[in-house]
Amino acid sequence: MLDLQLQITYLNDYTFGFIKTLLFYSFFKSLVGKDVVVELKNDLSICGTLHSVDQYLNIKLTDISVTDPEKYPHMLSVKNCFIRGSVVRYVQLPADEVDTQLLQDAARKEALQQKQ
Amino acid sequence: MSTALESYINRTVAVVTSDGRMIVGTLKGFDQTINLILDESHERVFSSSQGVEQVVLGLYIVRGDNVAVIGEIDEDTDSSLDLGNIRAEPLNSIVH
Hints:
By secondary structure, chain A is an alpha+beta fold. In chain A, 20% of the residues lie in helices and 29% in strands.
């Protein structure tokens, strides 16, 4: 079980219109090195090791494989890829990599602070 | 931590666009909004009836809004691909 220290940091400058806290950025940072499956908004699913993430939740995966390579041979010669955060629908993670309670609590505190 | 495209500069990349197209080229530049400069680019058109068609494009600027995925192409694997025999439906568009 991961000991997550989630710090909520606020951006002061212009942030291209996304939410000014980095809770999920911190969350994904703690998952670097784990295997995840990213499902995109064009229905493509890519499995790989989480290499890095940024404040826009853009994702870099290494050693990728497409979940259904027969249907999607488009990425056969690609081993590493960069996925733009805006096109991600889901990020599938193994349950034992996530402290769901902690994340839930942090997100709720987040929502409360955002309201004020 | 930044997921910069720095490491892909001057490499051959496959860009999947939001309208489901795939463009292969040399990544020459990028910025924070993922606007891209692709040199010597060509589009790989996938079809379920015939093999992959490659349409030469040249030097392109792709606006970041339209970028979905940027894949680093492994030259060895790519050269061993028999594009003429690959049959596949084109990728779907990104639907927000």
